UniProtKB/TrEMBL annotation, chains A, B:
Protein name from the UniProt record: Acyl-CoA dehydrogenase
Residues in coiled coil: none
UniProt KW Isomerase keyword: no
Keyword Flavoprotein: yes
Superkingdom in the source lineage: Bacteria
Acyl-CoA oxidase/dehydrogenase middle domain location: 161-266
The Acetyl-CoA dehydrogenase-like C-terminal domain, residue ranges: 467-594
Catalytic activity, EC: 1.3.8.-
Keywords: FAD, Flavoprotein, Oxidoreductase
Taxonomic source organism: Deinococcus taklimakanensis
Cofactor(s) required, per the database record: FAD
Length: 598, 598
C-alpha cells in the first residue's frame, strides 16, 4: 500500500522552507530541538500507520450504528484512541504543568497531519477533544478546567462542539437552544443540536459538550448567545462521571464520507434536566468560538490537504506500476505497454495533484507558524502577524478544501476504473474531503469574510503585510536558477489582484454591501491561487538553494519541487486573471437574477 | 421531492432551439408529429417517475450481491425493466418492421434522458441492451439478428459490451481473450473480461455479450481484434435459451456510485466451452465498436447532463425553502431569516448549475440531431455533418462529464450539511456521475481524439464547419435584445480558439506527436467552453425571439435563459483564454517532468 504521507516533504516544509528548527530559541520551546521534533513526527507516523490507517476502510464500510441503544463503532477506533493517548498527543502542545510537551503549533499541526491522512474519520474524535480543550484553556475558569479540561488532556473523556441546530447551521445567530439559570449558578439547557460530530459513543467514560445557547431573555442575534459546558454524565464531587445529564441521542446522520465519525442529532433536556455551566461572561459565546476559529479553520484546511496528499501518493504509486497503452510516437503493437506515468496527460494529472497538495501543505504550515509567532514570537510585529493570519485564514480553509477535491478527482482519473472502486482508497478520500468546503464555514462564508472583513480591516493593513512578504520573497529569489516561470507568473498574478482590489475597494460604499460582496468568491479564488503561487516560490527558492549540494534522490526531490513550481506557474496561475477581471467589473449577474427566472 | 427533469426545458430544447417538429417532413418520420413526440415524452416521464425514481436510493443502498450463487437485485429493478419494455422503449427507434416506432435519435435521447435522471443505475440495464442491439443491427447477419437481436428489442433478453480486461481498459489493443475456430464456423472463446456492466443478473432468461477477442494467430494490436456474440445460455434451435455457455461470474466490483448496475468480472470458457459467433469479418472488432462510438459517447454525455440536471433541481427546491441568514445589507437579528436563494453566492451556485446543465443538454441534443441528419437528413452536406459530429463527440462526452460533476458539487454546496447526507439525493448523483469522465474513453483519450484526430482530419474541415455554424448563429442574433454579453464573449472565445489552433497546428510535424498532444486537455477545455457558449447563444436567441410574446411563467422562463447565457458569458467563457494561451505556447512542462522527480 502507498504511504499516506511524505516524510521527506514534511521535513522539507518544516526545516527548509520554514525555520522550525529555530523555534527552540524561544523560551517556551527551550527544551526542544530539531531532533526532538523529528522523533515526535516519527512516533506520529508509526502510530498513524499502525493504529489509524489499519481500519480506515473498515470504519468507512461499517458506519457507527445503534446496538441496544448504544453507538457501536468498529473496534479499531478504541485501539487508535488508546495509542493516540499513550503517545501523549491529546496534550502535546499544552504547558508542561498540564502534562504537555509545549509543542509549537506548527509541529502539533504536522503531528495531526499524519492522522488526517491515515484515517480522518477516527482522527475526528481526537481533534474535537483537542479543540474543546483549547477553548476551555482560553476561556473556562480554573475550576472548570480542573473538572472538564484535564480529563480531555488525559484522553479519558472526549469533547464536542455543539453549535448548529436543525434550522440554524451557517446562520448561528438564529439558534434557539435555551439556558435557564438555576439557583446554584448553573443553567438548565434545553434544545436540539444538529450535525454534532462525536456527539455520542462509548469510547470514553464521559463526553463534554461545548454548547451554544441563549440565556432566557437574552437579546436576539449573536449578542444573546452564550457558551456552556455540558457533560453527558454529571460530574460527581470526586471528579468521576455520575448520573445521566439527559443529553439524548435523537438520531445518527448518514453522510457521503467521514463515515467513521459518529454524527448526531442531540436533544438537551429530554426526559430530565440537562445541567450546564456557563463559560466566561453571558453573551460572549460566539465571540469565544470565533476566537478559536483561525485554528479550527487551519485544521480543516490541513485536513483537506492531507486527504489530497494521501490520494496523490496512492495514484502516483498506481501510475508507476500500471501498464497501459503506448506513447503517441510509438504505436508498435508488439512493444510492451508503458507504465501510465509515461503518458503526458497522466503526468499532468500527477503534477497538478503535486502542485495542489504540496502547495496546500506549505500554506497550512505557514499559517500554523504564524499562530506560533503570535503566541511566542517577538512582541514587535505581532499586530501585523495577527492581521496577516486573519487574512490568510479564509484561504487556508477554503483553497485546499476546494482544490484537494480537484486533486482527488485527478487521482481517481489516473487510476481509472480501479480508482472508482472501493478496492482502492481514493474514492473514500474523495467522499471524505467533500465535507471540507462545508463545515467550519462554507465557501460562501469564507468569501464574505475575506472580502467583507479581512481585506478591509485596519485600513487594509493585512493585505499590505501580505504583499510586503511576497515582495521580499520575490526579491530574495533574484538570481536563483530555475525560478523564471514562477517569479514571472507570480508577479503577474499579484499585479492582477492588486489591480482588481484597487478598482473595487474604493467603490464599496457606492455599491452597498450586497453588490460589493456579490463576487466575493472570485476574491477567494484570485487570492487563493496567488498565495499558493507564493508558497511555490518559497519552496522553489529553498530547492534552488539546496540543489547544487544535493545528490541522488535528494537532487530529484528538489528538481521535482522546482518543476511543480513551474507547473503551478504555467497551468494554474493564469486562472487568476479571469477572477480578477470579474471582481474589478463589480459584475451584477448574480444579483440581477430573479428567483422566478430559475 | 423535486422533479428530476424540467419538462419545459426539454420542450424548449427540442421544439424552440432545435427544429424537431420539422422531422416528420422526412419520409422515415412521416407518421410522426410534434404531438406524437410530446406524448412519448410524457409516457417516459410517467414511467421514469413511477418505476425508476421510486427505487433509486434503495438500489444505491443495497448493491447487487450474491445469494446462493445468483446476483440479487432490489425488486424495483425488475419492475422498472418490465415497465420500460411495456412502453416499447427497447425498440422505439427501430424500424416498424422490427416492432419499433422509427423514433428519431434526438427524441430517443430525450426519452432516455428521463431514465438517466430518475435512476441511472437501473437504466444501465436497458441502455446496454439498446446499444448492443444497435451494434447488431449494423453489423450482424440477418440470422444473427433474428437469433440474438430480436429478443433484445422485445426486452426479453439483455445485452452487454464486454471489451475491457483486467490488464487492458483504455488500452484495448492489448486484450488477450482468444477465439479458437470450431469446425461448424463458430468460435470457442476463452479469457477474462473486467468492468462488465450488467454482466450477470436474473432479470432476463438470457444475456447476450458482445465480446472483443483475438482469433488464434491474429496479428498483434487492434487489427487482430474481432467481435463475437456470446450468449450466457446457448440458444436452442427453437430460439429458447438452453444449456450453460460457461460464462462464469468471477467477482462483483464495488464502486463509489452507479451501484444499482451489477458490475462484473467474467471468465469465458471456465469449466466448459464458451461458444461465440463472429460478427462480420475477422479483425474488424474495434472498428465496429468505434462505429457506434459517437452514439455511445453522446449517451455518456447525456447521462452526465441528466445527473447534473437532477441535482440542480433538487438544490433549487432546497434553496427556495431553506431559510438561513440575512443579506449583508440587512443584519437586523429580529428579522426573519431569508430563503437562501436570496444570497448572492447561493444564486451564483444555482446559476452556474443552470448554465452547465442546460448548456450541456443543449449540446447533447444538438449532437443527437446531427445523428438524425446523418441518417435521414438531406444527402447534401452529410459529409460536413459527419465531420462536425466527429469533432463535437469528444466534447459532448467529456464536457458534461466534468462540468456536471462541478455542478453537482455546487448542488451539495447549496444544500450544505443536508446535501452531504444520504437523506437527499445529490450526494448519490455526485458519486454516480464521477464514473462518466472514465468510461467510454477517459478525458485523456477524448483530448487526444479531439486534437490528434478530429481537428486535423479532412484538412481541418470539421472545425471550419463548426466555425461556420457559430458565425451563422452570431449573425442571426444581430439585433436581438439581451444578448450583448453572450455575443461579445463568444466572439472573443472563438477568436482565442482559432488563434491558438492557428499557432499550434502548423507546428505539429516539428513538435512530433508527443509534444503536439501534450496539452490536449486544454484543447478540450477551450473548445468545450466555447461550444457550450455557442449553445447558450442559440438558447438566448430563441428566448429573445419568444420573450415579446410571452406572459407570466413563460416570460420568466425566457428571462432565465437570457440570464443564464449572460452568466456563462461573464463567469465561464473568460476561462477559455488561459487554456488557449497554454495550448498556443506548446508548453513542455508535463513532458519535461521526469518520473524520478515525483
Amino acid at each position: 500500500m502507498a504511504p499516506f504521507l511524505s516524510k521527506r516533504d514534511l521535513q522539507f516544509q518544516l526545516f527548509e522552507v520554514l525555520d522550525t528548527a529555530a523555534l527552540p530559541q524561544r523560551p517556551r520551546f527551550a527544551e526542544h530541538s530539531r531532533e526532538v521534533y523529528e522523533d515526535i513526527l516519527n512516533v506520529a507516523y508509526a502510530v498513524a500507520e499502525r493504529h489509524f490507517a489499519n481500519h480506515a476502510r473498515e470504519a468507512d464500510l461499517n458506519e457507527p450504528h445503534l446496538e441496544g441503544g448504544k453507538v457501536n463503532l468498529v473496534p479499531g477506533v478504541q485501539a487508535a484512541m488508546n495509542a493516540f493517548r499513550d503517545a501523549g498527543f491529546f496534550s502535546a502542545h499544552h504547558d508542561e504543568a498540564l502534562g504537555g510537551l509545549q509543542l509549537p503549533w506548527v509541529v502539533m499541526q504536522a503531528v495531526q497531519a499524519h492522522f488526517q491522512a491515515a484515517n480522518v474519520g477516527t482522527a475526528g474524535y481526537a481533534f474535537l477533544t483537542i479543540g474543546n480543550a483549547n477553548l476551555q484553556r482560553q476561556f473556562a475558569s480554573p475550576e472548570q478546567q480542573e473538572k472538564y479540561m484535564k480529563p480531555l488532556l488525559e484522553g479519558r473523556w472526549f469533547g464536542t462542539m455543539a453549535l448548529s441546530e436543525p434550522h440554524a447551521g451557517s446562520g448561528l445567530a438564529d439558534i434557539t437552544t435555551t439556558a435557564t439559570p438555576r439557583e446554584d449558578g448553573t443553567y438548565s439547557v434545553s434544545g436540539t443540536k444538529m450535525w454534532i460530530s462525536a456527539g455520542e459513543h462509548e469510547l470514553t467514560e464521559n463526553i463534554v459538550h461545548l454548547v451554544l445557547a441563549r440565556i432566557k431573555g437574552a437579546p436576539a442575534g449573536v449578542r444573546g448567545i452564550s457558551l456552556f459546558l455540558v457533560p453527558r454524565y454529571r460530574v460527581n464531587p470526586d471528579g468521576k462521571p455520575g448520573e445521566s445529564n439527559h443529553v439524548v441521542l435523537a438520531g445518527l446522520n448518514h453522510k457521503m464520507g467521514y463515515r467513521g465519525t459518529t454524527n448526531t442529532l442531540l436533544n438537551f433536556g429530554e426526559g430530565g434536566e440537562t445541567i450546564g455551566e456557563i463559560v466566561g461572561e453571558p453573551g460572549r459565546g460566539l465571540a469565544q468560538m470565533f476566537h478559536m476559529m483561525n485554528e479550527a479553520r487551519i485544521g480543516v484546511g490541513m485536513g483537506a490537504v492531507m486527504l489530497g496528499y494521501a490520494g496523490y501518493l496512492a495514484s502516483l504509486e498506481y501510475a508507476r506500476e500500471r501498464r497501459q497503452g503506448r506513447p503517441a510516437s510509438s504505436k508498435d503493437p508488439q512493444s510492451a505497454p508503458v507504465p501510465i506515468i509515461a503518458h503526458a496527460d497522466v503526468r499532468r494529472l500527477l503534477l497538478r495533484q503535486k502542485a495542489i497538495v504540496e502547495g496546500g501543505l506549505s500554506l497550512g504550515l505557514y499559517a500554523s507558524a504564524l499562530v506560533d509567532d503570535l503566541q511566542t514570537g517577538p512582541e514587535e510585529g505581532r499586530e501585523d502577524t495577527a492581521l496577516l493570519l486573519d487574512l490568510l485564514t479564509p484561504l487556508v480553509k477554503s483553497w485546499p478544501s476546494k482544490y484537494s477535491q480537484e486533486a482527488l478527482s485527478d487521482a481517481i482519473q489516473v487510476m481509472g476504473g480501479a480508482g472508482y472502486t472501493r478496492d482502492t482508497p481514493v474514492e473514500m478520500y474523495y467522499r471524505d474531503n467533500r465535507l471540507n468546503p462545508i463545515h467550519e464555514g462554507t465557501e460562501g462564508i469564507q468569501g464574505n469574510d475575506l472580502l467583507g472583513r479581512k481585506l478591509t480591516q485596519a485600513g487594509g493593513r493585512g493585505l499590505q503585510v501580505l504583499l510586503g512578504r511576497i515582495e521580499a520573497d520575490l526579491k530574495a529569489a533574484e538570481g536563483l536558477t530555475g525560478l523564471d516561470e514562477i517569479r514571472t507568473a507570480l508577479q503577474k498574478a499579484v499585479g492582477q489582484c492588486v489591480g482588481a482590489l484597487q478598482t473595487l475597494l474604493p467603490k464599496a460604499a457606492e455599491l452597498g454591501p450586497d453588490l460589493f460582496l456579490a463576487n466575493a468568491n472570485s476574491a477567494l479564488e484570485m487570492l487563493g491561487h496567488t498565495v499558493i503561487g507564493w508558497m511555490w516560490l518559497r519552496q522553489a527558492s529553498a530547492s534552488a538553494r539546496a540543489l547544487p549540494g544535493a545528490r541522488g534522490s535528494d537532487a530529484d526531490f528538489y528538481r521535482g519541487k522546482l518543476h511543480a513550481a513551474r507547473f503551478f506557474a504555467t497551468h494554474e496561475l493564469p486562472r487568476v486573471r479571469a477572477h480578477a477581471e470579474l471582481l474589478a467589473s463589480a459584475d451584477r449577474t448574480t444579483t440581477d437574477m430573479q428567483e422566478a427566472w430559475f
